[in-house]
Design a protein that fits this description.
The chain is an alpha/beta fold. Helices cover 36% and strands 24% of the residues. β4, α5 and β5 form a beta-alpha-beta unit.
Length: 270
């Protein structure tokens, strides 16, 4: 599949575009959807993120993956550098009745005990970190037979689809420097992970569609890197109106089918 993805990627290691998702924490927690059921079925086949395992979810944000894994019976710790996103995560946990320990910190230097986790997961965040440093830290945190899971749920743009329409409006209001990156740069990332000592891996990916109402999709877009965390309130108001008009014109039906791609790599040390 081709097309732009949601959010800038890690073309410059350690120098991500300055984006504060905490500025859109409420929308991030309310509108972002998690991985589809097929993703977890694939994890089951690989015997990772299953009941009884200790999982550290780095870059957990509002805890979407952490919560899903806790509901599957994992003992989960979530780590993120944003207090605002972690606050939203705790609210969402309380609503569904799960207990997750959250820590404020970064994937490159967690400050957590080493050799303590069966799985370290990173969900749609690996493009924001200093990848070599984060990979080395993940290896330190894992038990000898542990697994590193890097997974992405990306928007996929095809001519005329919802994502293409959204990007066309976004390009009118948001700086061009934040677009055009791939959030999963394979095989570049794999080379860095091998350098960190991960010498065995398995990869899977598949297309999927997620359903949104018009208003829910606009809320989801606000939580994208180029919108809520980057735009002034005045610019966002103009953008949101333009997006609403474009969606209504091209997709008059109430429910939008939004094209996504799941891509994941599971790594370990032999």
């Amino acid at each position: 599949m081709t097309g732009r993805q949601d959010g800038p990627g890690g073309g410059n290691i350690g120098l991500p575009v300055a984006v504060d998702y905490g500025l859109a924490a409420d929308d991030y927690g309310r509108w972002r959807q998690g991985f589809p059921a097929e993703f977890f079925a694939r994890l089951d086949k690989l015997s990772i993120c299953v009941a009884g395992q200790d999982v550290l979810d780095v870059g957990t944000g509002t805890g979407l993956l952490a919560r899903a894994l806790s509901l599957r019976g994992c003992r989960v710790t979530g780590l993120d550098p944003s207090p605002a996103l972690l606050s939203e995560a705790k609210k969402a946990d309380e609503a569904v009745g799960v207990s997750i320990e959250y820590c404020l910190g970064r994937a490159e230097a967690t400050g957590l005990e080493g050799n303590a986790y069966d799985v370290v997961s990173a969900a749609t965040c690996w493009h924001w970190v200093n990848r070599p440093e984060a990979a080395a830290e993940c290896r330190r945190l894992l038990r000898p037979d542990g697994r590193l899971l890097i997974a992405h749920l990306d928007w996929i743009s095809h001519p005329g689809n919802v994502i293409d329409t959204t990007f066309n409006v976004m390009d009118r209001f948001s700086p061009a420097h934040a677009s055009g990156f791939l959030t999963f740069q394979y095989p570049q990332w794999l080379f860095e992970l091998v350098d960190a000592g991960f010498d065995a891996w398995q990869i899977f990916g598949f297309p999927t569609t997620l359903s949104y109402s018009h208003s829910a999709w606009r809320g989801r877009v606000k939580a994208s890197a180029r919108v809520g965390p980057a735009m002034s309130p005045e610019t966002f108001e103009q953008f949101d109106l333009a997006l609403s008009e474009a969606l209504s014109e091209r997709f008059p039906q109430e429910t939008l089918s939004v094209d996504h791609r799941v891509f994941a790599i599971v790594l370990w040390t032999r």
